[in-house]
UniProtKB/TrEMBL annotation:
<dbReference type="GO" id="GO:0016773">
    <property type="term" value="F:phosphotransferase activity, alcohol group as acceptor"/>
</dbReference>
<dbReference type="Pfam" id="PF04655">
    <property type="entry name" value="APH_6_hur"/>
</dbReference>
<dbReference type="InterPro" id="IPR006748">
    <property type="entry name" value="NH2Glyco/OHUrea_AB-resist_kin"/>
</dbReference>
<dbReference type="GO" id="GO:0019748">
    <property type="term" value="P:secondary metabolic process"/>
</dbReference>
<protein>
    <submittedName>
        <fullName>Phosphotransferase</fullName>
    </submittedName>
</protein>
<keyword id="KW-0808">Transferase</keyword>
<dbReference type="InterPro" id="IPR011009">
    <property type="entry name" value="Kinase-like_dom_sf"/>
</dbReference>
């Protein structure tokens, strides 16, 4: 159990009222709060990647992502997304095509051009994958293929943009009237197709391994191709399979 004392500096600074149990993850501490009567979530980052992601959340300015209400040091105050819909449940109910369309539409919003420069703290993709080569040398197996794909793709990046870096069904939440919104970016700079290729790395292995799942959900059944331009691009460019192999270690917690 996490003590509220950990949150006290930010509770006092931003005049927040706790409203629920604290949550502890491997990289952050979370506490539901009220901010001037508005439901919010106080997040204290305990890992460098979460600090970096906080800067990217500020840069998103609520477009495709949860709004940042305040930000100082490791503390981030976010609008609380309390919609009742869940992409994981949509996927489990057999509506994978709908879930894939939603994810791709959110990613397209995150990748949209903005009129201000992105954070300087974004990880270059090569830095983000720095542990892949040593792991491939040590463990072999699927990591050898992943490392080979990474070497090729990192040497020839295309359409470089700020990346969320951890797109999956649990990181896009229902924001009620604001629609579906992303949370918990890692803050990476690299080829935009990586955020779409991450769809292969579904958190449920059984779903991820279904033959033709992404092609069916993202391409064949999709009627709104404008919103899926990034996904269609990697599908037709021949880079899709290599991007998937590059992303695979992330789905297996080998980073």
């Amino acid at each position: 159990m996490v003590s509220e004392d950990v949150f006290q500096p930010w509770l006092s600074r931003w005049r927040l009222v706790p409203e629920g149990e604290a949550i502890c993850t491997h990289s952050s501490l979370l506490l539901p709060v009220q901010s001037d009567g508005v439901p919010a979530m106080l997040k204290i980052s305990t890992a460098e990647e979460e600090l970096n992601g906080g800067h990217l959340m500020v840069w998103y300015a609520g477009d495709g992502a949860a709004r940042v209400l305040a930000h100082e040091g490791p503390g981030l105050l976010l609008e609380r997304l309390s919609g009742q819909r869940s992409l994981i449940e949509i996927e489990r109910s057999g509506r994978g095509d709908e879930a894939a369309r939603i994810i791709c539409e959110v990613v397209a919003r995150l990748h949209a051009a903005r009129d201000h420069m992105p954070p300087e703290t974004l990880y270059p993709m090569a830095t983000w994958f720095r542990q892949l080569e040593p792991a491939a040398t040590r463990l072999g197996g699927v990591l050898t293929k992943s490392a080979a794909a990474a070497r090729e793709l990192l040497a020839t990046p295309q359409h470089v943009v700020p990346l969320h870096g951890d797109i999956h069904h649990g990181n896009i939440l229902d924001g009620d009237e604001r629609g579906w919104l992303a949370i918990d970016p890692k803050g990476v700079l690299g080829e935009r197709a990586f955020d779409y290729a991450n769809l292969f790395c579904h958190p449920e292995a059984k779903v991820a391994k279904e033959a033709g799942r992404l092609e069916r959900d993202c391409f064949s059944r999709n009627r709104n191709r404008d919103s899926l331009c990034g996904a269609n691009q990697i599908h037709h460019s021949g880079r899709c399979r290599r991007l998937v192999w590059m992303a695979k270690p992330f789905s297996d917690d080998l980073r």
